[in-house]
Structure formats: C-alpha cells, structure tokens
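Project outcomes to date are best conveyed with an example. Our students and postdoctoral researchers have been running inverse folding experiments weekly, and each run begins with a structure described purely in tokens. The record below, which covers 263 residues, was selected by the lab manager from last quarter's runs and is presented without edits.
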C-alpha cells in the first residue's frame, strides 16, 4: 500500500522500517499522517512475515508535534469535529502501542508534543546525542491529553510531573533519566545501536514475542477505550477554554500570550 506521508520498507529478515516522511514540515502530524499511520499499523499487524518494526523519520526533526495548519483549522471547528480530530491521534497511538511486533524507536533528532507520544509507544527508544524533547502543549494553553497515557506509562507519574506541565525542553541525557529513552548514543552510532536491539528478536519465536508483549499490557494499567475517551474529552474541554484561544492566536500572531511573565 502507498501512503502520502510515511513509508514502510521491509528487508529480507522481516524487519520493517516505518518512516515519517514529511521532512519539509519537520514531520509534524497532519490529519493525513494520522490516517496513514493508523492504516500502516493495521497493515503491519496483519503481516506475519514482519518480525520487528523500527519507527524512524526523515529530515532534521523526528517529529515537531502537531501540524500548524491542522491546529489552525481546529480553532474553527465545532466541539464534536474537534473531538473527532483528537480521536485520530489517540487511536493512532493505540494502534502503534498494540502492534504484536516489537516497536523500536530511532529518535535521531528533536521530538516535541506528539513526537514524545510516538517515542512513548515504542517498546524501546534510542536517541541521538544533541536532540531535544519536550511536552510543549501548555505553552499554547493546551494539555498533552491524548498522548498522556503513553507518556505516563513510559515515565511513571513521578517523572512525568517533572516535565508534563511545564513545557520545558530537555536534552537527551534527561530523557534517559526520565525513562523516555533507553539510551543516548552519538548520531553516527545510532543505526548500530538500533541493530543491536533488532537482532535478538530474529532468534526468538515471533508468536511467543507477540504473546509476551500482550502479557505486559495485561499486567499493566490498561490504556483502554475508557481511558482514551477520557483523554479526548479532556482535550476537547481544554480547547473550549479562553487560554487555548489566546495561546494559539498568540503563536500564529508571533506575540507573547497574555499570561507570560518575565523571569
């Protein structure tokens, strides 16, 4: 299947690389990308020849978060339509999170907002030294709602409290400390580090790997439809706040929002 915003390439070993391919937009998530990723996750999940999946990206950024045009369009949507848009991100993340194959994140550059959510649904994510990450939503008057269950599951609540609400950007070493990344390596060693994670799975029974992964989910706090719908409602409620209108408007008008205070 051909996609507009992503690529899937599978080698002879059954290792699929799922690549975000909007380099000119820093791989920001558009509605089309969310649809493409959801469809690709379904395609991969149904393919028994795929043993391992690498989540990667083209260009100078791994993922800059939400696409600006998509965000601007949401300002004009009615609440029901806006909730449906939030659901696209929420259920795309669920589709990646529940892949039967192991998902390994190749985080080669900056990841913000939804990009942090993408890293969080990986079974293991490795980052290149020098990158920055951040949950930047509150700077716009929004909240990291639909990515929240996966971020908290990855970091734990105590670590999430350090970065979830402040919109503070943090480097790769702190991302490792927070548990968001498993390790950080020099950029020229990233592919070797990814291969070191991939290769052990090729000697494992794929059915056993899939059932072991499913067992982890069964033994963990569930991220089910009830949780996902709660996050969608929380984000929809936040979109209706005066702060979100001010934050988004200030961003597009290239001015400070009215809550900004100097240090």
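After processing, the design step wrote out the following sequence:
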């Amino acid at each position: 299947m051909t996609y507009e915003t992503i690529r899937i390439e599978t080698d002879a070993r059954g290792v699929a690389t799922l690549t975000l391919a909007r380099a000119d937009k820093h791989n920001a998530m558009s509605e089309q990308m969310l649809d493409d990723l959801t469809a690709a996750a379904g395609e991969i999940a149904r393919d028994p020849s795929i043993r391992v999946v690498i989540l990667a990206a083209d260009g100078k950024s791994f993922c800059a978060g939400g696409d600006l045009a998509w965000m601007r369009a949401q300002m004009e949507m009615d609440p029901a339509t806006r909730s449906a848009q939030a659901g696209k991100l929420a259920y795309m993340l669920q589709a990646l999170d529940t892949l039967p194959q192991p998902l390994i994140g190749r985080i080669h550059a900056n990841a913000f907002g939804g990009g942090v959510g993408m890293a969080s649904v990986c079974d293991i994510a490795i980052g290149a030294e020098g990158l920055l990450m951040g949950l930047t939503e509150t700077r716009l008057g929004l909240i990291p709602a639909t990515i929240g269950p996966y971020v908290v599951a990855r970091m734990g609540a105590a670590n999430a409290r350090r970065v979830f609400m402040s919109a503070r950007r943090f480097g790769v070493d702190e991302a490792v400390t927070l548990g968001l990344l498993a390790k950080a390596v020099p950029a020229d060693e990233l592919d070797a580090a990814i291969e070191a994670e991939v290769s052990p799975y090729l000697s494992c029974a794929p059915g056993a790997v899939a059932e072991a992964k499913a067992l982890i989910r069964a033994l963990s706090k569930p991220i089910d439809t009830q949780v996902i719908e709660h996050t969608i409602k929380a984000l929809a409620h936040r979109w209706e706040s005066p702060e979100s209108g001010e934050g988004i408007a200030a961003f597009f008008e290239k001015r400070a929002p009215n809550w900004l205070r100097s240090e």
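The chain is about 45% helix and 15% strand. Residues 149 and 222 are 9 Å apart (CA to CA). The training component of this project remains on track.
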